[in-house]
């Protein structure tokens, strides 16, 4: 800190056309920044990714993010907030407002991580049951659609259970990848909320079938039944 206040170092283009470093007062910098005339060289970026833990990165403004996006989306500290979205397993990063980022972290990236298959099922089931009727209806429709797709490959659960381990693992892997994309689309507002929630329960059900876990098969089937009925009722009503 100097007598005239804190100094901020900036890179500017000199009269010879070459970049050089200069120092200006923090007050002057803030005034220019508010007008979009200057920006810091770097910023801290908070990132949410469905496939990885939350992380913090340092981005170069003008290289990793445009000055315009930084100026529009930065918080009071100059930080940015990013959500990773997946399309065909390929990630893309989207800078979003901090309040939306905070809500996404709170609602989707819960810090309470289930530690077992049974706990994960209970977590997903309770999450769906606590959702609105509209979300549950979308989840029910998803369960119905995916169940029909499953039956195109396997006429019944026994044929899936009796398939070789590699075949079952590959089917479950593809289904898991599809659900990740659904969840990513929901976060990016490209799909309605609830699209992935019913699918997760069906994936857990088929996983239990593949493992031969009779107790969990029964337990998850009981949880799915109300949503199967909801989907049936919606289809019946749409045909009348």
Features:
single chain; alpha+beta; 9 helices; 240 residues; two-stranded antiparallel ribbon; 3 domains
- The SSE order reads EEHEEHEEHHHHHHH
How many strands, what sense, and barrel or not for the largest sheet? 4 strands, mixed
The main sheet orders its strands as 4-3-5-6
Domains, number: 3
Residue fraction in strands:
15-25%
The average pLDDT score comes to: 83
How many helices does DSSP assign?
A: 9
Query: Which stretches are low in confidence, meaning pLDDT under 50 for 5 or more residues running?
Result: none
Number of strands: 6
Which structural class matches the secondary elements? alpha+beta
Assembly classification = single chain
Shape: elongated
What's the alpha carbon Rg, rounded to whole Å?
25 Å
Distance between the termini: 76 Å
Share of helical residues: 40-55%
Write up this protein.
The chain is α+β, with helices and mostly antiparallel strands and 240 residues long. 54% of the residues lie in helices and 19% in strands. The chain is built from nine helices and six strands; from the N terminus they run ββαββαββααααααα. The strands form two sheets. A four-stranded mixed sheet has the order 4-3-5-6. α7 (165-187) runs antiparallel to α8 (197-211) and α8 crosses α9.
